[in-house]
Amino acid sequence: MLRITTESEPLKITLKLEGDLTGIFVTELFDAWREAIPALGQRALCIDLSAVYRIDKAGEYLLALVRSTASTQLLGSGIFSRDLIRNIARDWPCANEAALQEA
Predict the structure, then answer these.
(1) What is the pLDDT of residues 2-11, one digit of tens each?
(2) Considering the entire predicted model, what is its pTM?
(3) Which residue among 13, 17, 34, 40 is least enclosed by CB atoms within 10 Å?
(4) How does residue 59 score in pLDDT terms, banded at 50, 70 and 90?
């Protein structure tokens, strides 16, 4: 199961993920990302992975795709999420290395 909460602030929109980013739940993140894009304007998009417990290759690939956009950042505060962000950076390098942060 995956819960996605959208938090809109003046400088950014944050998609907070909670649960497993696996299987059919990957499409839920894809849909949430596509819905957030028109609302961004000049704001950044942050994806908070602090409460993600499991992820499969499809989830990693989608996160790599999402972070390759210029205004997207991946955030994480736990061991799992920080390792996940590092693995995505290693496995799918992109020009937007500023997109990798630890919360």
Answers:
(1) 999 999 999 9
(2) 0.84
(3) 34
(4) very high
Question: In the structure, what pLDDT confidence band is assigned to residue 95 with cuts at 50, 70 and 90?
Answer: low
In this structure, are residues 101 and 73 in contact, taking their beta carbons and an 8 Å threshold? Answer: yes
What residue ranges do the domains of the chain occupy?
A: 2-99
Burial code (b: 16+ CB inside 10 Å, e: under 16) for 32-69 equals bbeebeeeeeeebbbbbbbbbeebeebbbebbbebbee
Residue given tokens 């990957």 in the structure block: 26
Architecture of domain 2-99: 2-Layer Sandwich (3.30)
* Pairing of the two strands 44-55 and 2-8: unpaired
pLDDT at 103 over 50: no
Q: Which residues pair with 4 in a beta bridge?
A: 17
Tell me how many degrees the CA angle 58-53-92 measures, rounded to the nearest 5.
Answer: 40
Q: Which of 10, 94, 4, 97 is nearest to 49 (CA)?
A: 4
